[in-house]
Design a protein that fits this description.
single chain; mainly alpha; 4 helices; about 90% helix; rod-shaped
Length: about 170
């Protein structure tokens, strides 16, 4: 029985001697792979932290500032001013056209056309202001969604690289 045990021990020593260089090479490569993946994980993390975190924070701040009553009112005021400017130009063109046809600016016809234009302008301004507020609200929400989704995959890439490094280290 001891002879059998000795044969098994001798065989194990022989196998170890034959496989030791290969196993050492594999362990060395797995250790290098672990180091490389740890560095890659840190690089992903540092890149995310230095590049996307400030960008995300800025976008979130901008999105939050955009999605306010003050911004909606500012855009509505601008829309009303743009509508007023457009109507003013149209009114001036109409006045010139009427004057070229000899229509008296003090006539009831001229005044009636002016009243219709003023009513149309009021309606257009109200519609423009309401539309601007609604668009601002929708755009503010969309900006928040964009800001929340920015750079989300980078933390996963960092975690995956660290996980691969742990796996390579465990096999070494």
């Amino acid at each position: 029985m001891s002879a059998l045990g000795q044969k098994q021990l001798d065989f194990a020593k022989l196998q170890y001697a034959e496989n030791a260089p290969l196993m050492k090479d594999i362990a060395t490569k797995q250790g290098l792979m672990m180091d490389q993946q740890m560095a890659q994980g840190k690089d992903y993390y540092d890149y995310n932290k230095a590049t996307f975190r400030p960008l995300e924070q800025g976008m979130v701040t901008d999105a939050q500032a955009f999605d306010t009553d003050a911004m909606r009112n500012q855009l509505a005021t601008k829309a009303a001013a743009d509508a007023g400017l457009a109507f003013g130009r149209t009114r001036q063109a109409n006045e010139r056209a009427m004057a070229s046809m000899g229509v008296n600016p003090n006539s009831a016809r001229f005044q009636g056309i002016g009243s219709q234009a003023a009513l149309g302008q009021a309606g257009m301004r109200a519609g423009a202001m309401t539309g601007a507020r609604q668009q601002a609200q929708q755009l503010g929400y969309a900006r928040k969604l964009d800001a929340a989704g920015l750079g989300r995959g980078l933390s996963g890439a960092s975690t995956a690289a660290y996980g691969s490094a742990v796996g390579a280290g465990s096999m070494a």
